[in-house]
Amino acid sequence: MEDNKDLNRIKVMLAEKKRTNKWLAEQLGVNPATVSKWCTNSSQPSLDMLGKIAEALNVDYTELVRIKRNNGDKEE
Known about the structure:
By secondary structure, this protein is mainly alpha-helical. Helix content is about 45%, strand content about 0%. It has four helices and no strands. It is globular, with a radius of gyration of 12 Å.
């Protein structure tokens, strides 16, 4: 069974940009608890929201996602 614990890298990017969950929530107009769920991968943002997150963090959206292939440990 596939391990989905690292579907997105929002938490990593927030740390790299020295930003907080609260800051991101304010930028996006969402509840800080929602951002927390994204950071712990207990829920995922929509593709539209992923674009808004990337814009807020000034990164390409591809930096926010991790794709695991079924053929071993290769990641993109």
